[in-house]
Design brief:
The protein has 3 domains: about 5-170, no CATH class; about 175-290, no CATH class; about 305-555, 7 Propeller (Methylamine Dehydrogenase, Chain H). The chain has about 550 residues and is mainly β. It is about 15% helix and about 40% strand. The two termini are about 50 Å apart. The radius of gyration is 26 Å and the shape is globular. The strands form 10 sheets. Strands 3, 4, 5, 6, 7 and 8 form a 6-stranded mixed sheet that branches. A hairpin with a 2-residue loop joins strand 6 and strand 7 (about 155-160).
């Protein structure tokens, strides 16, 4: 084992040790093992952490502490943790019901020989469906336990159906996966992020999550091709030689041939995230099905090259050579544009100006821009992949103006968003979700919301908002950065800005701070993150640092 690996193991062991209760030390005989690359998927229940079972003559507190520590070992269905349980309770305990990510130490209280509680500050939680939720600072949980004297030693006869881990352990054991549903037109697949331990059973949990349906906040904008009520007819999804066999109940027979193809596409997109899965075989009640594999309906990748508004019009800022967007300079000069949006196919241009939002088609001789929204205080316009233009006022009490590419208005009910003051608005690349950064009395709040559409793909309303980051974050700008990632900037003291990548249904990763940044745009994770400073200087995040790319930039966006 080289020095780097030894240092990593020591750091993880120290982090686990200091987070453990002062009442009882972490068992020193527990091993932390270097296992396979978890990103590649597992074919057996083998993980980094190998907790130890109860020692002879262990006290109630030692049993309790050892049981909680054993949550680091999900292999063999948490077999080590079950050694701390009574014979009757071993089969009743359900560790997959919930995961708590603790902050700080655990405080124990033993009230008698048979009763105890543990109080823990919780940073986040993951429910049985794999849905991750960050909790406000200071959130605590009180856990109840009951002991029994059995076979000359103490064991737990009652414990919550959950496991408890600290963040570094969670980051090793768990991994995020997207469960894919279709949009309302069955055109694109939409991700719904879940978190599961990296185990041989991960494929089974992914398919079960897909069969159970989407998260509540997303349900208004997605649907599944798998008939409601369909379940696995066998206990698990089997993976052999790269082929995942998914055996469904006969409820799946109610789907039409076209819907079965779509169902297979959903299952394939979900399971293909496991590196040991290359193909999917669908069976119904153990009968093989001849279902064609259709092209995965993921939306096209957004360009890695951002577009900047400069004195010369719109310019693609490519790594080798910058190219102008033909016709943009004349149109933008005519309306005195201060911001813009370029359609995904770069055929249409929306422009924000002091007079309002204008829409124009590029490449037409004598083309005139059409005023589609004459309100004041407008944010940068937005195109979605379906071709609709969103014009959003920053002023609370005003709704949204949505038009097609011809400038014809679409009736849209902004609902809860109407009353809020908006700072940023963006639509995800498949068009089923929007991010909204709003200003409140206590600060700023970042939400994602489902976009509900009609049979013509026209947006008609928003679903219920899902809070991503709360008021304490002081976010000033936000942008989609991938399927489930959002790039944000938060204000700090002395003009410093703190960029970060947060995840819809996951945690936040901080990037290096930068002076004077006012806005952020991104497309494909940390590989394409840019900020624009107040003086018009543009920077790209590369190698954990911000590198100057261009000066004299008025606005910056990706197409689409």
């Amino acid at each position: 084992m080289n020095k780097l690996i030894k240092s990593l193991v020591a750091a993880i062991a120290f982090a686990v040790l200091i987070a453990t209760s002062a009442c009882a030390a972490l068992p020193r005989s527990s091993d932390i093992k270097i296992g396979p690359n978890l990103d590649s998927g597992l074919t057996a229940d083998y993980l980094y952490y190998s907790p130890v079972g109860p020692t002879e003559g262990a006290s109630q507190v030692e049993i309790l502490n050892g049981f909680l520590n054993a949550g680091t070992g999900p292999q063999n269905d948490y077999s080590i943790a079950r050694e701390y349980l009574s014979e009757k309770f071993k089969s009743e305990w359900n560790p997959s019901q919930e995961v708590l990510i603790q902050r700080g130490k655990v405080d124990y209280s033993v009230y008698s020989n048979t009763l105890a509680t543990a109080t823990v500050e919780v940073a986040a939680q993951v429910n049985s469906k794999g849905q991750y939720e960050t909790l406000p600072t200071g959130s605590t949980r009180l856990l109840d336990f009951e002991f029994v004297w059995e076979n000359d030693h103490w064991r737990l006869a009652k414990a919550p159906n959950l496991t408890l881990v600290i963040q570094p352990v969670f980051d090793v054991i768990f991994r995020s996966y997207s469960v894919y549903f279709y949009d309302q037109q069955f055109k694109y697949l939409v991700p719904d992020l879940r978190w599961f331990p990296s185990r041989a059973s991960t494929g089974t949990r992914l398919v079960n999550a897909l069969l159970e349906g989407s998260s509540d906040w997303l349900s208004g904008s997605v649907q599944s091709a798998i008939p409601s009520g369909t379940k696995l007819s066998t206990a698990s999804v089997t993976i052999l030689d790269g082929v995942a066999t998914v055996d469904l109940t006969n409820r799946a027979l109610t789907a039409t041939p076209k819907m079965r193809e779509r169902a297979k596409a959903q299952i394939s997109a979900t399971l293909s995230q496991l590196a040991n899965v290359y193909a999917v075989d669908i069976q119904i009640e153990r009968t093989p099905q001849d279902i064609a594999s259709i092209k995965t309906s993921l939306p096209p990748e957004i360009s890695m090259s951002p577009v900047a508004l400069t004195a010369s019009g719109l310019v693609h800022l490519a790594s080798n050579v910058n190219t102008s967007v033909i016709g943009s300079k004349q149109l933008m000069s005519k309306v005195a544009a201060t911001d813009f949006a370029l359609s995904f196919d770069e055929q249409h241009l929306a422009m924000a100006s002091p007079a309002g939002t204008y829409l124009a088609k590029l490449g037409q001789m004598g083309n005139n821009a059409k005023l589609i929204d004459a309100r004041g205080g407008l944010l940068a316009p937005v195109f979605d992949i379906q071709g609709f233009v969103w014009s959003v006022s920053s002023v609370g009490g005003q709704g949204l103006v949505v038009t097609d590419r011809g400038g014809n208005r679409i009736a849209f009910n902004a609902g809860w968003l109407t009353a809020t003051e908006r700072l940023s608005f963006a639509v995800s690349r498949e068009g089923s979700r929007a991010l909204v950064l709003v200003k409140t009395e206590g600060g700023t709040q970042l939400y994602v919301v489902a976009i509900e559409r009609n049979e013509k793909s026209e947006p008609v309303r928003f679903g219920a908002p899902k809070l991503i980051l709360g008021s304490a974050s002081a976010i000033s700008s936000a942008s989609w950065a991938g399927e489930v990632e959002i790039a944000v900037i938060s204000a700090r003291a002395n003009g410093l800005a703190a960029p970060a990548i947060t995840t819809v249904g996951g945690a936040t990763t901080n990037l290096a701070t930068i002076q004077g940044a006012k806005s952020i745009v991104a497309s494909n994770g940390t590989s394409s993150v840019y900020v624009l400073s107040r003086d018009g200087t543009m920077y790209q995040y590369r190698g954990a640092a911000w590198n100057l790319v261009q000066s004299s930039v008025l606005a910056l966006h990706f197409p689409g």
